[in-house]
Structures are given as C-alpha cells and as structure tokens.
Amino acid sequence: MRLETDRLLITLLKPENWPLFLRVHQDEQCMAWVSAIPDDEELQKRFSECLLPWFFTSDHMLCLVVRQKKTGEAIGLLGATAEGYPYCQVEIGYAFLSQFHGQGFGSEALAPLCEYLLHHCGFHKLTAHVVEGNWSSRRILEKNSFLLEGVLRDNRLLRGRWKNDWVFVRLR
Prior knowledge:
By secondary structure, the chain is α+β, with helices and mostly antiparallel strands. It has helices at residues 18-26, 28-31, 40-50, 105-120, 135-143; strands at residues 2-4, 8-12, 62-68, 74-82, 89-96, 125-131, 147-158, 161-171. It has a single domain, classed as Gcn5-related N-acetyltransferase (GNAT) (Aminopeptidase, 3-Layer(aba) Sandwich). Helices cover 28% and strands 36% of the residues. The protein has an eight-stranded mixed beta sheet, sandwiched between helices. Keywords: Transferase.
C-alpha cells in the first residue's frame, strides 16, 4: 500500500520503522492529548500488532508511516481500526512528531487515507475521537470533511483526570 500527496509519501509500517514508532509514542507534546507514555513492553506489543497484515475485517490497527517526499524523513503515523461487518465503519487516528506540528501535514496525510478507506475498502463511515480542547486535531478533521457528531462525557482517563471526547464522523 502506498498513498501520496504533493509533499508526503504514506506507506505500511515495517520492522525498520521501530525508531519512529518509539519516538512518536515518547514525544511528550505529541502524546499530551492521547495517553500517558506507554512503557517499553506495551509499546513493543503495539508495534508487533501493527506489523500484522491488515484487511478491512482485521481486529488490529492498520498502521502507516508518513514521510516527507523531499527529504524522505519519517514524520508521523496514521492508523485505522475497523469495526467491521455489518457496521462498515472504521476509526482513524494520527500522531506526528511535535517538530512537524502546525505545518499542515496532518490534514494533508489524512486526505488520501480517507479516500482509500471510503472508496477502496468500501467503508461507509469514518470516525475519530478527539479529547475535547484539542483544537489542532479538530481542525485536521474538519478540513477533511468530518463533522462533530457529539461529545462523550468523561470518556477518557488522561493523566489522572477524566476528559470528554469529541466524536467526529465522515460518511461516504
């Protein structure tokens, strides 16, 4: 699998991408809206699961590496977890190294992933959960035609405090 934009190349996660996976998940600024920084054992488990072959019926996440075309530098990750038949929906996520925040890479990378999931895989509904207050992530979704569907109150325990999640949806 290979997706491209003007500035980005998006490919399947491979074993040699462990250093990027580790850097993203240990980046305090990146993880501030996601979760506590996982320990090494948990990270290794997640990484191993992400390396498994992915089909739209898979229970594990499709994990993709985002690289700048110009430099070849890996800058972040995209993910998709199918909720499967008969629901035909998939939850998407993204995480970029903090030095690449604010440069439009999230919006740009998400666009071809959405097209792939909706038109190639045949999903009817894309969903995303974002911690309430994460305006940067909200803008990424809104630029990619996601609409706020609701708020899940006290949905996530983040750094010892319950947080609400915004639920965003994009339909085919």
